[in-house]
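pinging the channel bc i need a second pair of eyes. not urgent but kinda urgent?? the chain im working w is below, pasted from the shared doc
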Amino acid sequence: MELSRPLLIGAALVIAVVVGPWLAVVAARLTARDVAAARPGLGRMAIVTAVFAVLLAGAVLLTEVRPATLAFAWAAGAAVVLGAVDLATHRLPDRVTYPAYAVCTAALVADAAVHGTWSEMLGAVLSAAAAIGVGALVSAVAPAALGFGDVKLLGLLGLLLGWAGWGVLLTGVFLGLLVGALVSLVLLATRRAGWRTAIPFGPPLLAGAVGALALAAPLA
């Protein structure tokens, strides 16, 4: 469906304003591991909403309006929650990752049924499997560097980036590693972390994926 860019961005912003505060609450509760945790402050809710608005606008501009749009839009919301929780607790909750797998896979299958993008769907599945395999190998060799939550996140990102193409997947992984290395160097230089300090790797992976998709846009 072809819609004007201002209309798409406007719709994304409206949805972000409505859903963003709820995502901030979900992230706070997952961070505290308490469903009755206090609501985050207005500042944090505003930051989460703003980040979600940018990602959601990018998702709709990336694919325009088609079934695959739901996959990238849902992933945008999941990314905001996963990034916030990982930064605070070094965890990537399964209760966010697994539903994202289900919704994104269903949306991409629906896109293949409607638009005939079966080759892209196959590429997405193979990319997810490859990402999980490589991530699991790295985690087995160096568990301190890459946790199993990161491996599952790699599979989800592999699904989405692989749908866009193997080149996008490789770019996303490279950018994620680059961002992670730069963050580590900055933390070391400012003495906010040591050589043995565990660094949450989820946010760099997510940033790399966003960068790769931005470079590949539009995909419709």
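so The chain has a mean pLDDT of 90. and Residues 5-216 form one domain. — does that match what u expected or am i reading it wrong
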